[in-house]
């Protein structure tokens, strides 16, 4: 576990995802068996089709007609970002973070950057964005019970457990 002293040594930001530009990085992140084990609960690498599907499920709404009538920020399923950290004088993309009506997934795709406070900072930034869009709550679903780091990150940010079984935990945060 990382000492608290080091916890905010990284400058972290979220930028909107650009699927075309970010695809090659995401394919790398979602081919890493360690990353997959914690983020997806399996170790089968993702291909371009699956990543596009994931992106669409977060950023698009199925009810096209409703979208056309209402404002983007209300009708969108959610928002998806790329996590960047300042490395020297360059911003480095290291993972993705999103929020939808049912979940608030965060994946740092390079295990070397785990446990350094980056996920916790990314979550704080997501909470800010959700508030900006007037969301009243954030939910988390399907955190594997073995994913202690993730559970701690959400609990530290104020998320409360709503459901728990042997396999997974669900949480909610009132904003
Ligand atoms: C889950 C994830 C986003 C967390 O981000 P992170 O930057 O690694 O986590 P942080 O450094 O912010 O640490 C979060 C908390 O976990 C603790 N922690 C760190 N490593 C830990 C470990 N090996 N075991 C238990 N707790 C750990 C930290 O100390 C911190 O708690 P604290 O502030 O009370 O000390 C990141 O590890 C990740 O992307 N993992 C792979 C994908 C994944 O699991 N996604 C979540 C799916 S639900």
Report on the architecture of this protein.
The chain is α+β, with helices and mostly antiparallel strands and 175 residues long. It has one domain: 3-Layer(aba) Sandwich (Aminopeptidase), CATH 3.40.630. It has seven helices and seven strands; from the N terminus they run E-H-H-H-H-H-E-E-E-H-E-H-E-E. Strands 1-2-3-4 form a four-stranded antiparallel beta sheet, with helices on both faces. A three-stranded antiparallel beta sheet has the order 5-7-6, with helices on one face. Strand 6 and strand 7 form a beta hairpin. Helix 1 crosses helix 3. The longest helix is centred in the C-terminal third of the chain and has 15 residues. The protein is globular. About 8% of the residues have low confidence.
Q: Please tally the helical runs, counting DSSP H or I stretches of 4 or more residues.
A: 7
Q: If you consult CATH, what is the topology?
A: Aminopeptidase
SS elements, strand count: 7
- List of distinct ligands in this structure: coenzyme A
Indicate the mean pLDDT. 87
Structural class comes to alpha+beta
- The side-by-side strand order for the widest beta sheet comes to 1-2-3-4
How large is the share of residues in beta strands? 25-35%
CATH architecture: 3-Layer(aba) Sandwich
Distance between the termini: 28 Å
Query: Which parts are unreliable, with pLDDT below 50 for 5 consecutive residues or more?
Result: 62-75
SSE arrangement, N to C: EHHHHHEEEHEHEE
Q: Largest sheet at a glance?
A: 4 strands, antiparallel
Q: Helix fraction? A: 25-40%
Overall 3D shape: globular
The rounded Rg comes to: 16 Å
Q: What's the number of domains?
A: 1
Oligomer: single chain
Q: What is the class in the CATH system? A: Alpha Beta
């Amino acid at each position: 576990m990382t000492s608290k002293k080091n916890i905010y040594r990284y400058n972290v930001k979220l930028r909107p995802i650009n699927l075309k530009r970010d695809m090659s990085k995401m394919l790398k992140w979602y081919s890493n068996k360690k990353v997959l084990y914690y983020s997806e609960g399996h170790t089968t690498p993702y291909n371009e089709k699956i990543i596009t599907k994931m992106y669409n499920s977060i950023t698009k709404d199925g009810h096209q007609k409703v979208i056309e009538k209402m404002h983007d920020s209300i009708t969108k399923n959610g928002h998806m970002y790329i996590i960047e950290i300042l490395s020297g004088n360059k911003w480095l993309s290291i993972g993705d973070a999103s929020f939808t009506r049912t979940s608030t997934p965060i994946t740092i795709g390079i295990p070397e950057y785990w446990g350094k406070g980056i996920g916790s900072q990314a979550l704080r930034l997501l909470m800010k964005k959700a508030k900006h869009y007037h969301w009243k709550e954030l939910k988390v679903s399907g955190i594997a019970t073995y994913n202690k780091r993730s559970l701690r990150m959400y609990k530290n940010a104020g998320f409360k457990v709503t459901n728990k079984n042997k396999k997974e935990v669900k949480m909610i945060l009132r904003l």
